[in-house]
TrEMBL record:
Region Disordered, annotated ranges: 475-496
Family annotation (Pfam families): Glycos_transf_2 (PF00535), Methyltransf_25 (PF13649)
Protein name from the UniProt record: Putative glycosyl transferase
Keyword terms of this UniProt record: Coiled coil, Transferase
Record bears the keyword Transferase: yes
Domain Glycosyltransferase 2-like: 876-999
Length: 1135
């Protein structure tokens, strides 16, 4: 039994680490126990720590060897902590994959907790280990992982407790519960550093249990207690019996030694007491001496300071005396000069008076001109503002005209309109007969029967001709904006410069909007404009299409000072996005039009922001760095959204890189479907509303105005507004906005209700500044529960008093708005708001200050930060090498240069190369933190070597990559995108110049520099496209980790190589997944650079042998075949 005060002291362990730690194998033991823990850890915890980037503390890390092992093999974010300063200093110097900190958690330091606390073989040193657990549990927010000696009946001298099932609690306290245990027999390992058993315990905070959703299968993986290990238990029993007898003998000897030790300890205690008295006396004397010495030192310093100060004063006095002499000399000279100047001044005085008078006249003229210039400047600003307002009004009216035309032509094209044509004919027949009878009477009166016959014969052809001239459905009058109809190659629209394919500092932003730009100004337009203000090129896609059979687009520049454009795509029959999902033909045509647009714009990077489910199948084909769903509404709450569009939205919510919601209600709905959810609420255009306009609406009767502006639709509470009109008959209830719910008819009987219809966005302040009280009269329905109201930000930006319905999103405004949950309460709040008028300057300033901090610029800054903070896909590229060093160098160089957009890990496995490759790879890998190197002593073959790399890889996407390949720009990101957006796709490969199946394409290049240019031309024109094939060749193949976990490693039945890829693809298909080839990814391949060294005869023999193995498993082999070549039109495309 050890002395607790000694064994758990930093002095004890500092001495151990500085003396016999390494000689007793301490470092090897740390790495051994770390590997035991890693093998026993459940996969659900390994993945959760890695995918959620949880912070991990290795408590009691010693010199950090176990901590480094955890960081290397699990890619965890680990910090080693120990109370031994010498151990931590050694760990920080030696290891680079983990952080280290000198702390004692048992002293309860004031520091933030980690997500996970891991401890290996530490608690056995404490007499009360679960008290120590209680102390360290304050520094774990989610999990505590313990590795402990198990059933150690013959304890090590430094161990104070034996852990067994009866003394291991399921719940050490109400906050923690045991969720997993695993027992590991380490006696027969080579080498072994523990001749017994170790138990791994995982405790979770009880709050985590519901979130983790663990099953019974996740809770246990016992190595000695499980039923299927009874045989090993019997074998171990004999071993234990032998150890038992030896333990009794050792125990008797230990008792004798303990008696001797107790006597010696009593003697040592007496000696220690005498020594303590002597030390205390010496310390007292030493303290007195130190005080006297310190006093003498202080007096010495004071004396030296006084002497130095006196010397400095003397020096300054000498300098001052010399300076006075110089000043006197200069004064005498200046006095003589002054006498000369005084004489000259008398002569100049008369001229100065005359100049002063002239200066006064010129100053007056200058002030007059400055006033006129200010007047002209103000007038110029007013004219510019008026021009902008006029332009917006023109756009608004033109858009309204086009919308009405579209509605009319859509109505004319509907079946109901065609089916009701006979009814309209019958209904109009009496009037038509009456008019025709009047025509006949007139013709008869002015020419008799012959005149009637002549006019009748002329009437029929004329009517037929008029019918033929009716405009077909879907046509629209051309606007005045600049449009282009690109062909191939694309032409530049008038007034817009063609962009080159050069890398841009910021990605282009594609806003796939739910509305047209010139419709009511809302969130889509505001976000697009602020993205442009932040420096991005922004392409705003209208929800309206141009009816055309050929793909293409029209484009409109929306601001002369910003890179902001509206795009209208060409789609046959110009479908409305709200009423049905896009057809396969529409998707194909839109993708073709998008490629034309990308050719014209030179876009090389993009973010896609989707605001309606119709656009999701289109945006997934753009290979954007981020695909974000901007979820503005609870679309199901509209009640008229087709089920197929709701299904697309559900899919989009699950697969979007970023899911943005505008309210807490939508956030709760979204977090069930996606882990990357951010609330970015609506906002206000503060500058547009903060200053009162020169003119505002005036009621001719001079009444107080209770106002509302915005859409008047099914969520508008008509009964509430009627009650307000009744309750305040002397006030004007002014409603500004388009009425799509027939509200005007229902409120027509109230004389104090006035409705303006829809007005342009620029005219809203004209009405807003006339409102004494602003209303938010919404019904409480699922749609409004999810709504974050834009108009409240705008109301507050003008400093107005606001009364709203008690909806969840109103809570953020606090006491800046009045809210009510009943009609009577709402009327009462309006009455209170009117009584409080005029609002104090302090209240108005608070409202405006809030709105000034909630602008669309703030929201776009949040949007950009959320996108940039998204984790990049973790991709592990397994590169198998066997000689061909120059090819290996090209391959590795291309991986480093062109793997942008992903978090790349490179795992190199060398199969005993003999051309200097191992030495080169050792140096190359040693200088890179993201590289793992495995050097084999013998050739493990294609499958064996790749399986080593796959087992060591930590990525979510695994790539099998030959060393005779060169990857190209964007290869990894595009392949991960295909797999993410197509979860039924189990494995995917690229197109290439050299392979024996459908992935081969014709190429023209002769060097690698030309290859990259040609590859870009080949792949960009097929952006987002992939096709299905039977077998992906394993020169380059990417599979998600889920496929690897379902299908396992590559079959090693085929020896050195051939048929492994066919075999694996059959297993992928047998698992219900598909095999694909990415048309938009090109990888250069030398083809069989390693196999060519075998010679043709050996290659043929190997091929036939492996074919027999394959056919024994899967039946007759289907030879690979080429598809029709996909060629580039001309070499000019590469220039």
């Amino acid at each position: 039994m050890s002395d607790q005060n000694n064994i758990n002291s930093s002095q004890y362990w500092d001495n151990r680490f500085e003396s016999d730690w390494e000689s007793n194998g301490g470092r090897e033991q740390s790495r051994f126990f770390a590997r035991v823990a890693i093998e026993a850890l459940p996969q659900w915890l390994v993945h959760k720590v890695r995918w959620d980037n949880l912070s991990v503390c290795d408590w009691g890390c010693a010199q950090g060897d176990g901590t480094e092992t955890l960081a290397q093999l699990l890619s965890w974010n680990v910090t080693g902590i120990d109370f031994s300063r010498s151990a931590i200093e050694r760990a920080a110097r030696t290891h680079r994959n983990a952080r280290f900190s000198h702390e004692n958690l048992l002293d309860r330091p004031d520091r933030p907790p980690f997500d996970v606390v891991f401890s290996s073989n530490t608690l056995e040193h404490f007499v009360k280990p679960w008290d120590a657990f209680e102390q360290i549990s304050h520094y774990a927010s989610k999990f505590i992982v313990l590795l402990l000696p198990y059933r150690e009946f013959d304890r090590h001298i430094e161990h104070e407790v034996t852990f067994d099932a009866p003394n291991i609690p399921l719940a050490p306290n109400p906050d923690w519960a045991l969720v997993y245990e695993s027992v590991v027999d380490t006696r027969f390992r080579e080498p072994t550093y523990w001749a017994g058993h170790q138990i791994l315990l995982i405790y979770a905070r009880t709050a985590q249990l519901g979130l983790q959703r663990l099953s019974l299968a996740d809770a246990r993986r016992s190595g000695v207690d499980a039923d299927d290990t009874s045989t090993r238990t019997k074998q171990s029993l004999a071993y234990v019996q032998g150890e038992k007898s030896r333990a009794h003998q050792a125990l008797a000897q230990a008792e004798k030694e303990k008696w001797r030790a107790d006597e010696a300890l009593a003697q040592l205690d007496a000696e220690k007491l005498r020594a303590d008295h002597a030390i205390a006396h010496l310390e007292t004397e030493g303290l007195r001496a130190n005080r006297a010495l310190a006093q003498l030192e202080t007096e010495k310093v004071r004396a030296e300071q006084t002497f130095a100060q006196a010397e400095a004063e003397k020096s300054r006095a000498d300098e001052a005396l010399a300076q006075l002499d110089a000043e006197k000399l200069r004064a005498d000279h200046a006095l003589a000069q002054l006498e000369v100047e005084r004489s000259a001044a008398k002569n100049a005085k008369f001229g100065l008076v005359s100049a002063s008078t002239r200066m006064s006249v010129l100053t007056h003229e200058c002030e007059t001109l400055r006033g006129k210039l200010q007047q002209l400047t103000d007038e110029h600003a007013r004219l510019i503002d008026a021009t902008h307002q006029r332009d917006e009004c023109i756009h608004f009216l033109r858009y309204r005209q086009q919308s009405l035309m579209t509605e009319v032509t859509t109505l004319l094209a509907t079946r109901s309109w065609r089916w009701t044509a006979p009814l309209r004919v019958v209904r109009g027949m009496p009037d038509w007969m009456r008019r025709r009878l009047n025509d006949v009477n007139y013709a008869y009166a002015h020419g008799g029967v012959w005149n009637v016959a002549h006019r009748s014969l002329a009437y029929i052809p004329k009517q037929m001709k008029r019918r033929g001239e009716i405009a077909p459905a879907g046509t629209m009058p051309a606007g005045s904006v600049a449009r282009s109809e690109p062909s191939n190659p694309p032409a530049s629209p008038a007034g817009i410069t063609l962009a080159s394919k050069t890398p841009r500092a910021l990605p282009d932003v594609f806003v796939f909007s739910i509305i047209d730009w010139h419709f009511r100004i809302q969130r889509p337009q505001h976000l697009a404009r602020e993205f442009a203000q932040a420096g991005h090129r922004v392409y705003f896609f209208s929800n309206h299409f141009d009816d055309a059979r050929e793909p293409g687009y029209s484009i409109e520049r929306l601001d002369d000072l910003l890179p902001l454009y509206q795009v209208r795509l060409k789609v046959h029959r110009a479908p409305a996005i709200y009423f049905a999902a896009p057809t396969a033909e529409a998707i194909q045509q839109i993708h073709a039009g998008m490629r034309l647009l990308l050719d014209w714009s030179g876009t090389d990077r993009s973010w896609s922001i989707i605001q309606h489910g119709y656009w999701y199948p289109i945006a997934t084909g753009l290979q954007s760095e981020c695909l974000a769903y901007d979820c503005m509404d609870h679309h199901e709450g509209f009640g008229n959204v087709p089920q197929e569009l709701l299904a697309i939205e559900e899919q989009m919510m699950e697969r979007a890189d970023l899911l943005v919601t505008t309210s807490s209600w939508l956030e709760n709905h979204a977090r069930k479907r996606n882990s990357h959810v951010s609330v970015i609420r609506n906002a206000g255009q503060y500058r547009h509303f903060c200053d009162a306009p020169a003119e505002r609406f005036v009621d001719p009767q001079g009444r107080q105005i209770i106002g509302y502006y915005g859409a008047i639709a099914e969520w508008f509470d008509i009964e509430l507004v009627a009650q307000i009109a009744q309750s305040f008959p002397d006030a004007l209830v002014l409603l500004v906005g388009a009425d799509s719910a027939g509200v005007g008819d229902k409120l027509a009987r109230y004389p104090n209700v006035q409705m303006t219809g829809e007005v342009p966005y620029v005219k809203l302040p004209y009405y807003l500044y006339a409102f004494e009280v602003c209303l938010m009269p919404f019904r409480v329905i699922p749609l409004t529960l999810a709504t974050n109201p834009v108009k409240v930000y705008e109301y507050l930006g003008a400093g107005r008093s606001v009364v709203g319905v008690d909806l969840p999103e109103m809570a953020q405004f606090g006491d800046l708005v009045r809210i009510a949950d009943t009609h009577e309460g709402f009327v009462g709040q309006v009455r209170a708001a009117l009584a409080a008028l005029p609002d104090s300057q302090e209240v108005v300033a608070r409202r405006k200050a809030f709105a000034a901090g909630q602008t669309w610029a703030h929201r776009v800054a949040d949007f950009r930060n959320e996108i940039q903070a998204l984790p990049r896909p973790k991709v592990s590229a397994i590169v198998l090498t066997y000689n061909n060093l120059n090819l290996t160098k090209d391959c590795l160089d291309s991986l480093e240069r062109h793997s942008d957009g992903v978090d790349l890990e490179i795992v190199i496995v060398d199969n005993a190369s003999s051309d200097g490759t191992p030495a080169y790879l050792s140096a190359w890998a040693g200088s890179r933190a993201n590289v793992k190197l495995i050097l084999n002593d013998d050739n493990r073959g294609f499958a064996g070597g790749n399986n080593q790399g796959l087992a060591a890889a930590m990525g979510d996407y695994l790539v099998i990559l030959n060393n005779d390949t060169v990857v190209t720009r964007g290869w990894a990101m595009r392949m991960t995108r295909h797999l993410r957006h197509n979860p039924w796709l189990g494995i995917i490969g690229p197109v290439t110049n050299n392979i024996g199946n459908e992935a081969r394409v014709d190429t023209l290049y002769t060097g690698l520099d030309a290859m990259h240019i040609e590859a870009q031309a080949l792949t960009d024109r097929c952006l987002g496209e992939w096709f299905e094939l039977d077998t992906v060749a394993f020169f380059c193949a990417m599979l998600p980790r889920s496929t690897y976990e379902r299908c396992g490693p590559i079959s090693e039945d085929y020896g050195v190589g051939f048929f492994e890829d066919d075999d694996y693809c059959r297993r992928v298909q047998a698992a219900g997944l598909r095999v694909g080839c990415a048309e938009d990814v090109f990888v250069h391949h030398h083809l069989s650079a390693s196999f060519n060294k075998l010679g043709e005869e050996k290659k043929r023999a190997l091929f036939e042998t492996n074919r027999a193995i394959y056919e024994a498993k899967w039946g007759p082999w289907t030879p690979h075949k080429y598809r029709e070549s996909r060629k580039i039109v001309s070499e000019d495309a590469y220039v």
